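#lab-general

N.A. 3:47 PM
ok so I finally got the sequence cleaned up, no stray characters, all 447 residues accounted for. can someone with queue access submit it? mine expired

B.Y. 3:52 PM
send it over

N.A. 3:53 PM
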Amino acid sequence: MDAIGRYHDLLSDDQLAADSQGMLDEQLRRHGLVFGGRPLCTVLRPRLTNHERHAWLQGRVRVLMRVFAKAYDVAITSPEFRKQFMLADWEETLVRDDPGVRNPSPTSRLDTFIIGDEMKLTEYNAETPAGAAYSDALADAFIDLPVMRVLGREFEISHVPSRHGVLHSLLAAYEEWLGRRELPRIAIVDWPDVPTVTEFEMYRDYFHSRGIDCVIADPREAQYANGRLSFGDDDPVDFIYKRVLIHELVEQCGIDSPMIRAVRDRAVCMANGFRCKMLHKKASLAVLSDEQNARLFDAEERAAIDAHIPWTRTVVERKTRFEGREVDLLAFMIERREDLVLKPNDDYGGAGITLGWTVDEATWGDAVARALAAPHIVQQRVGIPYEPYPSLVDGTLHIVERMLDTAPFVSYGEYMEGYLTRLSTAALLNVTAGGGSTVPSFLVEPR
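B.Y. 4:20 PM
back already:
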């Protein structure tokens, strides 16, 4: 029996299941594993995979990151090429600044769906990737559950940690920016009422355990004087671990706010810096997918794009190619509604997304009109994988097929260090959207 089947079989023991659920609930409560007041995990099994699948995913991530890096390098040197990312004027202003760090996204996350050997990348979170600390904490919560201890007698079980990759990438960015190796004083910056605040606390405690001073700060309390940046009455900081979204920062504080001025003056280092905005835009997938840019990539990279990036275009009046034939984009979008999804170029948590197969023609037509009026992409529908996950409800075990994604954490803009898995029974597979569950991943092999 495979590891998943064996795990579910073990849960048929009512006492073992109850004891495991009780311990998991206690761990979630004790370690603050909540998101917006809800438990971060609502199922009784982690994701179980093996070393072969893990290595395959690592290889796919490496080549995709090479593709993103090539597109970024061209965009930085060519304002004309950069127009494809549909940046706002203020974004264009910030992108022109040299931040003193070569990589725009030292820490990032790819959001993919995998069915068998088919992987499709639907979004690249190049700006504020969440979940690495949550994933490691969830792994700690699961590893000692009674059911995991029994499973461990038959299978070697190992977790692939992620949060250290975030710290390593941040410290490397600071060393590059400063020109020497030195530990910075870090500010984790975001609004105090965001649902991910519990993860900020995990990072703060983790940084402290490594001898790195760290505070959690509100960007509205930034003060910039005498070449130093501080928050409130606290001491100055050297490094910003930016979790606030750039467009929210500009909207609420302004482009001339103290924090932004300090970063632009290179009085403080920030990751991810303002240049991350280009690749974070959903239009980045259109840039990679569009036939007009194929010349930028070698044969292996073009094969990876074809295999892993769904057909994606920015929504404008034009002709383009789809499956080898020329189409009028707008007419094609109306005709192929059930095969397409519309996404705002710059939003998160599933906001503003229209799934063509879930709405009628009139609603889709309205969505297309909105997409023409403000930057959007249109993307081909991808297959959603399902996997059975158990949950204990009122003492009764339920095993239900759930949609799941695979979101590798990327360090140094190059390689994967662990990954996030989100589960859902809704079409929008996003915890921020108000539902679903997050689970840690373990590599398992028979003993």
